[in-house]
Amino acid sequence: MQDLRELKVFSQVIKTGSLTASAKSLATSKSTLSRRIRQLESSVGQMLLKREANKLVPTEAGQVFYRYCEEILRLAELGRGEIEELREEVSGTLVLCAHEILIRPWLAELVEEFVLKYPAVKAILHTQTQLPTETEDDALYFWVGRVTHCDQNLMPLGNLTQSVYGHPDYLQRMGMPDHPRALARYDWVNSINDDSGLLTLHREGEDSHPIPGKKSCMQVDQVSLQADTIARARGLGLLPDWHADLRESFIPGALQRCLPQWSGPLRPVSLIYGHGQLPRRLKVFIEFVRQHRPEQWQAARAMSESTST
Known about the structure:
10 helices; about 25% strand; alpha/beta; two-stranded antiparallel sheet; 13 strands
């Protein structure tokens, strides 16, 4: 293992091409720099620098060694920063932007729990109905749906399964559908932001079956509003099972699943965050999210992975 001081000297000399300039930059003497370069070359067993036109330049071995030298220095600095952060308090403003279906109650309750655990953190929570085209480096984005292009880090959190739901009164009046093709005679409540394309239902062991084309009786831009409309017996609609289960726990009997053997396309749940060194509050919160993902999301993701392999 090389002395980091020798590596820093070597790196600085490569960048300046001068012992004098490097000594000034590092606030040390030329003789100290020369000694450290000699020690480094002795340790490596090869010349790393040569003089050309009054400038120090790397030899072929020096060019190779410089690449690894920079990586070692980068990792050493990264490690130092990580260790220093362990002494820092988790504090500051936590800016979160989330797809509307995730906020109530999951993310709101999760943030409340996090702030109680780390009282020096202030949280700001924004609702998103569209995937942002630009993101801020110090914010976290929770999204439901496909992300076709993203220049940030994207961490999969799981998948939401989907099924057809209706209100019991509506189903009693119209009758229970026995096959996806029967959906053509029902009113349909659709979400504008449904990114699944052509709505298709799947049944294990059988081919997919598209939902018959029918003009929606109402379109809304939030899943919660879509579920409200279905719960008012206005028609049927494709809802995430996780959302329907949450509503059932608060308002029993408001939604009834139709075609229980058929499922809609999976909708992935993702966390998007910036590159580079993240503030401690963001790193701690990301790990907090990872540990508190609903099991239903993870089970759906595992099912999707097993199906695709």
